[in-house]
Amino acid sequence: MEDSVNPAAGAANGKVPPASIYGGGAGQGITLPAYFKPTPSVVSASNFFPLLEELGPDEMRISFVGTCPFPPKRDQAATCIMVELGNGSRLFFDFGPGCLRNIAAFQVPVQDVNDIFITHLHVDHYGELPYLYAFAPWAARWKPLRVHGPSGRRPDEGIAHMIEGMKTMTRWHTKGFACGPVGDGYEVEVNEFDYEDDNGICYDKDGVTVRHWRRSHNMDGASAYRLDWNGLSFVWTGDGRPDTLTAKYAQGVDVFVTELQPDLGKLMEQKTGIPQQIYNATIDMVHTDHYATGYVINQVQPRLGMVTHMAYDHEVVNEAIAGVRVHWRGLFVLGAPDGVVINVTKDAVWARAAVLPDSGNFKKPTTETELRQMFGGQIPETMRIPEPEHTRDELLSPGVRAIEIPPSEFVPADVLRPLVNDMGKAFGPAMGKDIPVQFLFGAKGMGSAVGEFMHALRSLASALDLLAGGIVGKALPDSQHKDQVKQTFGTVADMVKQATRQSDHIREAGSAALMGAAKSMQDEGKRGDLKAAAAALVDVVRTVTGQLQKPDVRNQAKQTAGLVIDGLAAQLGSPAVQDGSADPTAVLKAVFATSQALAAGVFGQVLRDPGTAQQGQQALAQFRRFGSSAMADHDGTPALADALRLIGRMLQDPKKLDAVKSAASALIETAASVGARLQNPDTHSAVKGGAGLLIDGIGRQMAGLSGNANGKPAVQEDLPAPAGT
Q1: How far apart are the C-alpha atoms of 531 and 619, rounded to whole Å?
Q2: Hey, how many other C-beta atoms are within 10 angstroms of the C-beta on 602?
Q3: For residues 238 and 216, is the Cβ–Cβ distance under 8 A?
Q4: What is the pLDDT at residue 13?
Q5: In angstroms, rounded to a whole number, what is the distance separating the alpha carbons of residues 332 and 340?
Q6: Are β-strands 255-259 and 80-85 bridged in parallel, bridged antiparallel, or unpaired?
Q7: From CA 608, how far away is CA 614, in angstroms rounded?
Q8: CA atoms within 13 Å, Cβ hemisphere of 688
Q9: Given the DSSP bridges, would you call strands 80-85 and 60-66 parallel, antiparallel or unpaired?
Q10: Domain ranges of the chain
């Protein structure tokens, strides 16, 4: 009696034979080998989280981003398998409808979705291709799409003919989208191989080899694929009957993936209404049932056997596995539903489910691996923003354009921006020019050519925040004053951001300033002059803010700041400034003159000191020279006119006017705190030294804008700055 309820005792008596082909062991299961363990790159053994794991240099990762034949399910797109390799290569096997949503959720840049291998031309294996083809060029994949697939018995039954049909089908879409920069994105490099060339090589690049062989499906022209790289291998059979070629060419592969259609015609008739005669004949003619699946896996003897292209019906899954287990007793994992992830090294195989967002979006390509994938190997130093093939005015009749409602009817006035009616002009003078790749897609995070100028400033500010931490910590050690600084600059930043959004001139000038400063900051002499000027300015600030320790001076400074801001609102709100008839340079000089006159009433005694005045004048002159150098190739007058006009308009709003006055008052309090601490010789010395380090740090950060992280200018001297960057 005891033996019948104790499996261990029964096994010892020979009543329950050993079941594991891997040697067994207490707690190890009967189908799991010792090599079924996490690979070195795995962060979470339970789940895969996109972007949190960097694939090891000797690893392969296989992600099932589509797993269903027909009909599709909410948790199953049609078949697509993404294979990523430690050398940076990424390949896709089949591209069924719905798979792009999962590829986006896996945080793959759309520019990197390329090298797609189609097993055969049933729509559930390529139906997402037109979707990718139509939209990826708009999303800056300006290189041709690369598609691999078999020929057919006739020329009109191969992959090349299908691609030509896709181009014809999408003509209305692609012609309309060619009003923007699409480059060669609507070209397709089709690699149509001879489907009868069994075990022929259809891909050989970067140490990756892909071979193919015939499959017995319902027409000639169906193929299986085997990928080999770095001693690791993967097979996807596609659809078809069990065959001897697969057993031969897939022999000993690491991961073997085939299809499975359970031989359950009677049940399927009850579930779907499809007559079992049709269901049975479909399996018998063109597919592999669950018994045959296990048989073929056993013939191949892989380290891991898998199935996909199967409906993941919970009530059928156990039966499907049972059919496989009739013949295959080794490691087996279902490649369904969507999101199954397999990591493989020579010593380990691991399986998990990915945790994917319901509303995922494609990632911007920023890493070296992503950029290499995007450009198909070597990352070029520069690339051109392609010029559009058409304009919208060419393709849309005036009568149709006339029915549009103007944006002024529905966009709030404070966020209204000029309409972009010609995408060829959206990039300004950068269109058709060689732009550093780092500037467009670089890992420095400086924003894309179509991004707002403020995005670049925010990214630069984030880097400077780290660099300036030591200086701020010395001058403003208490959180109250740090908050005041943030509040003050936040108010100013909001105004600048609004002005930037509403003016192409400001964006173009900002781009020119960043590009010009990036080049100038790589000049050791100019950077040295800036450091000397910054040190002198710290001395002046120390002297001037020292006066703010007197309560009456501080109060007078606040009152004066309020008068300056009121005067600024009046000057910039004048009709001449608002209608653009005033000379912006003259207006700016008048604003400065008024401000200086009022400031002299507060700090006149200090500013009249010859030493302090000379120091301040020399420092400011050096900063002006640097600014003039940065803007040497760009006329900033239109941007200045727009800035004065937009700031003047904002200051007519009482709430915004009060916010600016409050920010100025907070800044004066902060300046008083700075002045008190700068009287300490150690703090004064540390801030002067830190200013030099900060300028060096800015130079290094801006090297990314110049396209050369080594500090040498890489932007052509005649290159206009890209508008809107």
Answers
A1: 10
A2: 21
A3: no
A4: 58
A5: 13
A6: unpaired
A7: 9
A8: 18
A9: antiparallel
A10: 1-29, 31-354, 377-449, 452-703
Q: Which of 236-245, 431-440, 711-720 has the lowest mean pLDDT?
A: 711-720
Count other Cβ atoms within 10 Å, centred on residue 645: 22
Inter-axis angle of helices 637-650 and 504-520, to 10 degrees?
Answer: 120
| Distance between CA atoms of residues 431 and 394, nearest Å | 19
Query: Whose structure tokens read 């830190």?
Result: 690
The fold of the 31-354 domain, in CATH, is Metallo-beta-lactamase; Chain A (3.60.15)
Which pLDDT score, from 0 to 100, does residue 461 have? Answer: 45
Q: Measured between alpha carbons, how far is 498 from 653 in angstroms, rounded to an integer?
A: 14
In 3D space, the residue among 221, 216, 256, 253 whose CA is nearest the CA of residue 236 turns out to be: 256
Q: Spell out the SS3 assignment of 550-576.
A: CHHHHHHHHHHHHHHHHHHHHHHCCHH
* C-alpha span between 30 and 24 (Å, rounded): 6
Higher-pLDDT residue of 142, 663: 142
What type of residue is 335?
A: G
Phi, psi of 233 (to 5 degrees): -150, 155
Q: What are the beta bridge partners of residue 256?
A: 235, 305
Average pLDDT over residues 361-367: 83
One-letter amino acid identity for 291? Y
Phi-psi region of 422 (alpha: psi -120 to 50; beta: other; left: phi over 0): beta
Q: Which amino acid is at 396?
A: L
Model confidence at 94, pLDDT cuts 50, 70, 90, reads very high
Cis omega before residue 71 (within 30°)? Answer: yes
Percent of the chain topping pLDDT 70: 79
Q: How far apart are CA 713 and CA 659, in angstroms?
A: 41
Neighbours of 527 (CB within 10 A): 19
Per-residue burial over 473-485, b = 16 or more CB atoms within 10 Å of its CB, e = otherwise = ebbbeeeebeebb
Q: Is the pLDDT of residue 434 over 50?
A: yes
Please name the amino acid found at residue 279: Y
pLDDT classification of 448: cutoffs 50, 70, 90: very low
Q: Are 635 and 457 in contact (CB under 8 A)?
A: no
The confidence band for 718, taking pLDDT boundaries of 50, 70 and 90, is very low
Residue with tokens 């008048």: 590
Segment (H or E) for 235: strand 232-236
Q: Which amino acid, one-letter code, is at 189?
A: E
Q: Which one, of 480, 521, 483, 486, lies nearest residue 627 by Cα? A: 521
Reply yes or no on whether the pLDDT at 3 is more than 50. no
pLDDT tens digits for range 309-353: 998 988 889 999 999 999 999 999 999 999 999 999 999 999 999
Segment 497-515, tens digit of pLDDT: 666 667 677 767 777 777 7
H-type alpha helices, 97-223: 99-105, 129-135, 159-169, 171-177
Sign of the dihedral through C-alpha 160, 162, 168, 174: negative
Q: Report the Cα–Cα distance between both ends of the chain, in Å, rounded.
A: 81
Gyration radius from the chain CA atoms = 34
Q: Determine whether 45 is exposed, middle or buried from the number of CB atoms within 10 Å of its CB (0-12, 13-18, 19+).
A: exposed
